[in-house]
Amino acid sequence: MRHRLAVVSASALLVVAGSAGVAEAEADSLYAPSALVLAIAQGDEQAAVLRASTLSCAPTAQGTHPDPEAACAELAATSGSLDRLLAAPAPDRMCPLHYDPVTVFADGVWQGERIAWKHTFSNSCDLSVTLNGNTVFAF
Questions:
Q1: Residue 54 is inside which H or E element, if any?
Q2: pTM exceeding 0.85
Q3: What percent of the chain has pLDDT over 90?
Q4: Rounded distance, CA 59 to CA 64, Å?
Q5: Is the dihedral of CA 10, 14, 17, 20 positive or negative?
């Protein structure tokens, strides 16, 4: 399954990058490439992809993500560090204590630098409160 996710991610990234013209960093380009495949999967090590989205942020925000402008702005605010999207849940938001893991993935390039990131949450509620309303994985 991991191999299948990697193949799907790589294929989707090539499609997005090829159509957006940002996969190759050209010497005369004003923008470093920023194109990601984002995925949400059920499980941890053998996660089955539930949803995936593409996001390209340079030179303009585009892709299959439902709100590419907001997602690109949030990534820019973190300088592409996806760990900085994780927040301490608000104390008034409680989640059940059952383990039904959900894993999020980001694979691609941010401002010319390779990114391969994943984070596993104990359940979908934990994912929601930890990402605390950001739009990067809201698809």
A1: strand 48-56
A2: no
A3: 59
A4: 16
A5: negative
